[in-house]
Amino acid sequence: MIAVTVPFTRLRPGEDAADVDTAIRRVLDRGWFVLGPEVEAFEDEFARAVGTACAVGVGTGTDAIALILRALGIGAGDEVITTPLSAAYTALAVMMAGARPVFADLDESRFTLDPAAVEAAISARTRAILPVHLYGQPANLPALARIAAQHHLALVEDCCQAHLATCGGRPVGTFGVAGAYSFYPTKNLGALGDAGAVVTGDRGLADRLKRLRNGGQTDRYRHAEAGVNSRLDELQAAVLRARLPWLATWTARRRTLAARYRDALASADVSLPTECDAGHVYHLFVIRSKQRDRLQSHLADCGVEALIHYPIPIPRQPAVASTRPADCPIADRVCRELLSLPLHPAMGDEEADAVARAVCVFA
Question: pTM of whole model > 0.70?
Answer without folding.
Answer: yes
